[in-house]
Write a structure and sequence with these properties.
2 domains, 11 helices, eight-stranded mixed β-sheet, Rossmann fold
């Protein structure tokens, strides 16, 4: 089985590490715009061979793990090159524009739109590790547009590396993910920005930063090259979530100005219910 991973970073690299474990006969080929990443991935065993787009005609599986704006550009070309029996899937955080881009492609049935809800703030080949996807949700969009045999192939792989499957239409995916993922990244980036700007005048501020700050700002270490295209592609949904978030922040500020700490307590207490929600999805 020839598996090509385009983008040998955290998600793509971790996925092919798991595939190598579950399918020892598989040969893993890597394609990346950064040749240093390819050399590094080869050295540490994330991939077994370097490859080019021209070699995709011998692929059985192609995993696209690159920024979503680049995916839109290269996906039609990938589908044109691969064989009729090749499974192609992406792992991007937006789905609507990607699905729309290839909706009339002659090999649309070779493509499966997926989004594994997994990851860390780290990037590059050295960030890849086994078991990243254990008990993680993988959202699949427009499954009915993918050839049934290729669906089966994909589901077998996802099951073997430990993922749970959730089906959703692309528009709903983009709307919901704006709330639970995209907004949290924006919040983290802007909290980091706020503190960095303050730190210019108070040099010891980071000495007082505890685990709460570290966990909240963790996502601000994520790659801007990956997240800027995500925000662009999901602009309308992200703006909607920001408007609601800003409204809540402004309301909290007004309560502070009024010294209405009873209402602040009530709002925080009602929000504590999120503990039960999050515990239920672990």
């Amino acid at each position: 089985m020839n598996v090509f991973v385009i983008g040998v970073g955290l998600i793509g690299g971790s996925m092919v590490l798991d595939i190598q474990r579950e399918y020892p006969e598989a040969t893993i080929y890597g394609i990346d715009a950064n040749d240093n990443h390819l050399e590094e991935a080869l050295k540490i065993g994330v991939i077994q061979k370097k490859a080019t787009f021209e070699e995709l005609d011998k692929a059985d599986i192609v995993i696209i793990s690159i920024p979503v704006d680049v995916t839109i550009e290269v996906l039609p070309k990938i589908l044109t090159i691969v064989s009729d029996t090749c499974l192609v899937f992406d792992v991007g955080s937006t789905k609507s524009l990607i699905c729309n881009e290839i909706k009339t492609h002659p090999k649309r049935r070779n493509f499966l739109a997926t989004h594994p809800i997994a990851g860390t703030e780290f990037s590059g080949p050295t960030a890849a590790h086994q078991n990243l996807f254990q008990q993680k949700t993988n959202i699949i969009c427009e499954v009915e547009k993918t050839a049934f045999k290729l669906q089966e192939k994909a589901l077998e792989i996802f099951a073997k590396i430990g993922m749970r499957i959730r089906y959703m239409d692309a528009e709903s995916h983009d709307k919901h993910i704006a709330y639970v993922s995209h907004l949290s990244h924006i919040s983290s980036f802007m909290l980091g920005k706020t503190v960095i700007e303050k730190e210019r005048n108070e040099r010891d501020i980071f000495d007082m930063a505890g685990s709460g700050f570290a966990s909240t700002v963790r996502l601000a270490k994520s790659s801007p090259a990956m997240w800027t295209p995500i925000f662009k592609q999901n602009k309308n949904n992200v703006i909607e979530t920001l408007e609601e978030y800003i409204t809540n922040l402004q309301e909290f500020k007004e309560l502070m100005k009024k010294d209405d700490f009873t209402e602040i307590y009530n709002k925080m207490e009602s929000t504590n219910h999120i503990k039960q929600i999050l515990n239920g999805i672990k």
